Amino acid sequence: MSSKQGGKAKPLKQPKADKKEYDEIDMANIQKKKEEEKALKELKAKAQQKGSFGGSGLKKSGKK
């Protein structure tokens, strides 16, 4: 007998995760983490605007 099932089999659906109940300490930690990520993003954006550090570019040796 041959199977008519062709192609990739669909994965089984995962049960939905229940929403977690956070207490005040957890909420404070989540908020702190979000603020740190935001500050890090701003620093990355600022660093990309400036370009390379020192401004000297590629260093050349004195040999010719």
UniProtKB/TrEMBL annotation:
It holds the Pfam family TMA7. Residues 1-64 are annotated as: Disordered. Residues 32-45 have a biased composition (Basic and acidic residues). InterPro entries: TMA7 (IPR015157). This is Translation machinery associated TMA7. It comes from Penstemon smallii.
